[in-house]
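Hi C.,

You asked whether I'd gotten around to modeling the 103-residue construct. I have! Everything is below, sequence then structure, no commentary in between.
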Amino acid sequence: MKGFQLVFSTLQSRKHANGDHISQWLMDIAEKIGIKGVTVLQASQGIGRDGKLHSSTFFELADEPLEIIMNVDEEACEKLFKVLKEEKLGLFYTKIAIEYGTL
């Protein structure tokens, strides 16, 4: 299949207006759209769009960088981005054309 790999970058502490963490909110939206594979990766450090170093330390796990990764077909991608645009989250993403499948 042809589609896209979507990678969203955020922080553990970042929340949606409804109170859910952005990572959980994205997984919930993906599930509603029918996206089956979502992976959340925790990083030890990262430099954000703000130019600041963010890291997971013993004292401040809320600043932990996260990546939410999805492999989606074009239809699911369009549905997801429609929702994201309506929400106006200011969420950083990368979108890469891929071929994917199961062997």
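If it helps when you're writing up: The chain has a mean pLDDT of 88.

Thanks,
B.
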